[in-house]
Specification:
3 helices, five-stranded antiparallel sheet, 25% helix, 79 residues, alpha+beta
Length: 79
């Protein structure tokens, strides 16, 4: 699954366009490398997102094309 779509479906980022912009600005890394929005995300990948002076690290636990709000929390875990 594309990184920008995963960020939206898992609700780490609220909108896909915002996820795209964050990737383009170089604020998203996957496994320690700056990632493009089109990069494939796999289970056990570590995603790090930088928002201003805050940083969020999460491990991908599962991938799904769609999810409800309650299910989205099960797609990743914070590190």
């Amino acid at each position: 699954m594309r990184l920008d779509k995963y960020l939206k479906v898992s609700r780490l980022i609220k909108r896909r366009t915002v996820a795209n912009e964050a990737c383009d600005a170089g604020r998203v890394t996957v496994n320690g490398k700056v990632a493009k929005a089109s990069q494939d995300v796999k289970v056990n990948d570590i995603i790090e997102i930088t928002f201003g002076n805050k940083s969020v690290r999460a491990e991908v636990l599962q991938i799904a094309d769609t999810s409800r709000k309650e299910e989205a929390k099960e797609m990743f875990r914070y590190l």
